[in-house]
Design brief:
The protein is α/β, with parallel strands linked by helices. The chain has a single domain (3-204), classed as 3-Layer(aba) Sandwich (Rossmann fold), CATH 3.40.50. The protein contains 6 helices and 9 strands. The protein has helices at residues 3-21, 27-35, 67-80, 95-102, 114-126, 162-166; strands spanning 56-59, 62-64, 85-89, 106-111, 131-135, 148-153, 168-179, 184-192, 195-204. A 7-stranded mixed β-sheet has the order 5-4-3-6-7-8-9. It is globular, with a radius of gyration of 16 Å. The N and C termini lie far apart (45 Å).
Length: 220
């Protein structure tokens, strides 16, 4: 193993230790974060920043979320939906989808920005990840593949999109940040038949969820 690869592996281990210190305790989640090389989702000249606990711009006004945010959302999902078919809205860099794939989910992901969709799809293929990627309005979900056992929404929504609720399996759950355009509260919505129950958690700041059932893209 080259020295640079050894260093990146060490940084990845340090990132996992940092997540533990921040309260991420699920062993499956921690193992997945160690297994997925986060630096592969960064440009070559920014790889040394990949394991800092910070968001990083990926172009088109989007970011790859900080490790803690990704781990927090993933933990909420794993604790309520440990396996099954999962829909991610907001592919972005592809990192969250890769984490879900390593965790053993059947992963479907939707990206509204064509350049990011194309970039992620190529990366999934190069890394031999079995992830279904689609270009389109994520707020409308992926009806042809519904129902989904779980959903992870990686952008801040003004409210939960009705289309996503409809595509959720009978005992499924959605992890979604809900609030204003600059600050949202992480929310878990669990379905039981035709009833939906919300749990509200920490406050975060995401890029806006733009689409027909989200924010209007002319505003941003």
């Amino acid at each position: 193993m080259k020295e640079s690869e050894q260093l990146l592996k060490l940084r990845r281990r340090e990132m996992v230790e940092m997540l533990q210190q921040y309260g991420i305790a699920n062993r499956r989640v921690l193992d997945a974060f160690f297994e997925v090389p986060r630096h592969l989702f960064f440009d070559e000249d920014a790889k040394e920043l990949a394991y800092n606990d910070a968001a990083y711009p990926i172009g088109f006004g989007q970011t790859i979320s900080q490790p803690y945010t990704v781990a927090y959302m993933t933990s909420l999902l794993v604790e309520r939906c440990p396996s099954g078919k999962v829909l991610e809205i907001g592919t972005g860099s592809g990192y969250q989808a890769a984490i879900l794939d390593v965790l053993g989910y059947s992963v479907f992901t939707v990206e509204r920005i064509f350049e990011l969709y194309e970039r992620a799809e190529k990366l999934f293929s190069r890394l031999e990840l079995d992830i279904a990627c689609r270009f389109g309005d994520g707020t409308l979900g992926w009806m042809d593949e519904a129902p989904f056992d779980g959903m992870v929404i990686t952008a801040g929504a003004p409210k939960e999109p009705e289309s996503l609720l409809e595509q959720l399996a009978g005992n499924g759950c959605i992890v979604i940040p809900i609030g204003g355009s600059y600050s949202q509260q992480m929310t878990v919505i669990r379905r039981s038949g035709n009833d939906f129950k919300k749990e509200v958690f920490q406050q975060f700041s995401f890029v806006p969820l733009v689409g027909k059932e989200g924010w209007n893209d002319t505003v941003f």
